Amino acid sequence: MSRLSIIAYSVCGLFFSVSLAFSLFYGYKVITHDLPKEKKAVETYNYHFVLVPEELDNEYWKLVEKGAQDAAKKYGVLLEYTGPKQANIDDHVKTIEMSAASKVDGIMTQGLSEEQFTPLINRIVASGIPVVTVDTDAANSRRLTYIGTDNYYSGYLAGKALIADTFGKINVAIITGSFYANHMQQRVKGFENAVKSEKRINIITVQESEISRVKAAEKANQILQDHPEVNAFFGTSALDGIEIAHVVKKFHKQHQIYIIGFDTLPETLNFIREGTITATVVQEPYQMGYEAVKMMVDHIQGKKVPPIVHTETRILRKADLPVSTQSGKAEGN
Prior knowledge:
Structural class: alpha/beta
Helix content: 40-55%
Radius of gyration: 30 Å
CATH architecture of the largest domain: 3-Layer(aba) Sandwich
CATH topology of the largest domain: Rossmann fold
Strand order of the largest sheet: 2-1-3-4-5-11
Strand content: 15-25%
CATH superfamily of the largest domain: Response regulator
Number of helices: 11
């Protein structure tokens, strides 16, 4: 064997030995350190529901979602929370239609208008998917049940609160979230009927905010300029009362104008503590979401479900807040 052949064999042997050493080292490392961890077991669900709110990022609807998610965990439900980012009835309807097309086990939503939502809900129910209305009913539809506030009664309570809290001549302006939405119509109607027998109370104007902070502020600002005689406001949605309060403070009239709002968002409670908002109508959005999921599961399991479940509604004033929070300190969990 020639000297070159010996050198070649030696080099090949050395290369093979090095390659083997690296293979053994990295093979050991993979076996002992880099094996993929065992995949977590896929979570299984009994049912798939969809909750479609009027406005996805609305704080009120996030409370509804929280209740629904808690119930979903208890009953083994996969819950989707999806809808328009800002209130838009066409987008709302499209989201419901898409949910139905995906063959979910149940849909929870509002019955915002008889004209559009009643036939929509009826078609979905006819296809075999139960629908629960939350917060706003579609009473003439084939929905399974309604879970939420008695909206006429809530407006009536607001009117009675105004009567109890004021004296003398009162000129009221109403800012409502929507002219077309059933629940807003009912709140205005309840308020009007509560105060109509009081000769000292006059409703000057009713304006629409379109569930928009900007629009609510614009309307409140315009009302105070066009109607300087206004000395009371009723805001029928959570955002209306808050923006009315901002505008009233801007005009430095917080001690001259009575405001009653809706819901207990943190800003609303802060305005109550400082006295800018006198009262607010309290709803139970968490309970609405929780009960909606529970009722849907009960129905699927063959249990009887009541056609209407009204959640609690009451008036809250500064005196009703815990003493520790009236000074402006944060409330506990």
